[in-house]
Amino acid sequence: MRSAPRTAARRTTLPFYHQSFHNLQELRHNASLSNKVFVQRDYTEGTVCKFQTKFPSELDSRIERTLFEDTVKTLNNYYAEAEKIGGQSYLEGCLACATAYLIFLCMETRYEKVLKKISHYIQEQNEKIYAPRGLLITDPIERGMRVIEISIYEDRGSSGSSSGSSSTTCSSGR
Amino acid sequence: MPPCAGDRLKPGAFIPVATAAVLLLGSSTLFFVFIGPWLVESVSVAFPICAGVTFFFVLANFTMATFMDPGVLPRASEDEDKENDFRGPLYRNVEVRGVQVRMKWCASCHFYRPPRCSHCSICDNCVEEFDHHCPWVNNCIGKRNYRYFFLFLLSLSLHIVAVFGCGLLYILDHLQDLWALHGTVTLVIISVSGLFFLPVVGLACFHLVLVARGRTTNEQVTGKFQGGVNPFTKGCCGNMEFVLCSPLSPRYISKPRKRKPVQVQPPFLRPEVVKQSPSKIPDNPIQHEVLSNKLHLKEKTEVPESIQLSTPPPLLPPKHNCNLLKSHLDSMEERLRYNRPSFSSDHTSSELPKTLEPISRMLGPSPQNEDVASTQARVCFHDYSSEPNLDRQNEVDPVSERSSVLQDPHLTSLNSRSHSLRHAHQQRNRPLLPAHHAEGLASNLPQKVLLPGGLSNRSSSLSYDSLVSSRPGEHRSVTSRPHLGHQIPYLPLDSTLGRLPAQQRHSPRTCSPVFMSASRHSPQLQDPSQALYDSLSRGVMASIQERKELVEREDPQAACTSDSGLYDIPSRRSLPPASLSRGPTPPAYGSREFLLSSAAYGYSSRWGLGSSSTSSLTRASRTSGSSLQSHMAGSGGQGRSLSPAYRSLDRQAPHCPPTVPSSTYAHQNLLTYSSGTDRRDPSAADTQGSPETLSGI
Q1: Which residues of chain B does A123 touch, with a Cβ-Cβ cutoff of 8 Å?
Q2: A90 to chain B, minimum CA–CA distance in Å?
Q3: Which of A162, B107, B267, B502 is the least buried, fewest Cβ under 10 Å from its Cβ?
Q4: Is residue A103 one of the residues assigned to a domain?
Q5: pLDDT digits over B572-588, tens only?
């Protein structure tokens, strides 16, 4: 007989996954989404993409301020780098114009490259810092670059809640 | 199938773009076929080549302008919408390079539109840096494709000039063969190009000016920056560079990328708790017992999932032990300093002791009131410690909000009870505490209490709002909200305390902006007790609600006026002239107000009444049609009576003096509210705001 899966990922393969709270292991290691915090944009410098570094009070007990601020500042730096008007953007513009913008079919723009870097960075931050604290950051691009959505998860623990919580294997962005 | 309006629009929308494409392609093809060879022979081979290159650019830019995503913002998710609170203000103010810019709530997309963003009714999308909807390309022109549209206009102008010129040359050269095939075709080409020459070149020049000034068509047409400063301009060269050379922005609405999921699995790490005072006795079994006895007092409503604070809430001794309480005050102070670093730390650190000291002092001289005072202190502490919980109540259902003092049910019940004690005390005999103590408390405490609340983001204020207004079975009723001013936890004892003369205490009721989502009522500043509510526990708030109901029955007029304040620009109605003599509003509160209204953007307190007024235009109006709202808002501040769905709010309207929404960005600066002064003169409120709002920003 197959033993119950031990990791959350494997538990998702259970047939009645959503009801798996009956599983004792589920009861012990359940985390469910309890809240979402939205870090808004900082428009003091115009429409450049920049997020507020103000520490949300909901995260007060979940993560250290410095970690959060570092994350947001790094993201702001990435976006500033992406939106910088300089040599590379001139070149891209001219090349695009010259090729009737067909170059966009072949080549990735600088912004897209930086977005990929941002996505990797957020993934890494989630894995190393936020997920161990029961938080997940959603890539702002999925919210139209308006907010950084931070999902707060609660440990259902062995409360045996009858509300049928399911364990979480959440992607940092869908 | 009978054609409905929507169906008819769709094919109709393609007519201009089809016409433009046909004319462009057709004319140019004819040009190259009939006149090109003659040009090669008679003039030079360079002419057709240049014309060809120009036509090539025209086509490329036309295609990009037509098919490129202009910068559509995806709809906000439901969670974010709940945070914003559908009954929030219509506008949210933000400061961009020192200029107040108003962000409007988009009812379709469920978020506050970023600056320069506008909702296109034809495309039914919010578009970033919205310029206009161009029928000739059947697409919105926004941030991502404005450059291509601009280049399309320039290149098309050039192309039209070239075609017209070459055609004219041909005609002049073949005057005798005018009615031959070539001649006829050339005449057709010339007439078409001549017909479109003026409009296209005129539009190109118009956009050239716009680019140089750093404005969008939408901003130019609505006159946003006519009287004032455009905060988005980077200078002429900077603007040109920005339009032509900036990197291509990404698409927001794109296919979902497959990503490796990140597992979130308990147990979770928690941040380290700073040193706790040894005098704190969280594990005192006696305390637990006493507090658990008070659990029954807690209001029974559904309690959502709780968030555990890393630091246990302070459990105050049930005995009236002043020394213990005092040491606990010290420990709380330390903890608060740690937990609230986001507060202007100079404020908190320097004034917390001052804040807490009066409480300690209160405990000494009036032992007979110790119960009340100590419970007040408990409420104070609890307020601080419960701040995160309260703030987090963004998306919690309003009905359940009141009940959910999450991790601290004991203290909640305690506070409820303490509140009832205070209230009873108030009813009986107000000036029990020495006036100077209370005054010190009044002067210090509200500010400090406001600090935590002030720094909470808008959502927390919204949650307060719903908390205050919600009652069992009553969803977000705001009628009783103003009465909160009566039950002031921190100034219960002496109605003549500090800056709150007894007769003035009524006015805060009118503006319970503290609870209102972003109603930025400066009058509240006058009432520190009012402000204190923000940091009260939900249990206290619940009991406050009950009290409010009682008072409301006794004093419907006050309820009415206070209630109307919720929906109207607070400045107006909320403050009777007597309130003008109130003490200065603490700047912290002012910034809190602003923060409430601008979702804690952390900007300086240049919020002014203008901003507060715009942000509080109509709470309810967010759910009704925006155009109707703006119209109502512009028509004089009976903003509440916008939607039939909000009749309960409407009934307050007659009692409220008309208010005028604040105005353009430029005028916002003029409306800075100084803490000492009070309401703006209603006439000063800009009626320019009306056309602006009406213009459908």
Answers
A1: 259-260, 262
A2: 5
A3: A162
A4: no
A5: 444 444 444 444 444 44
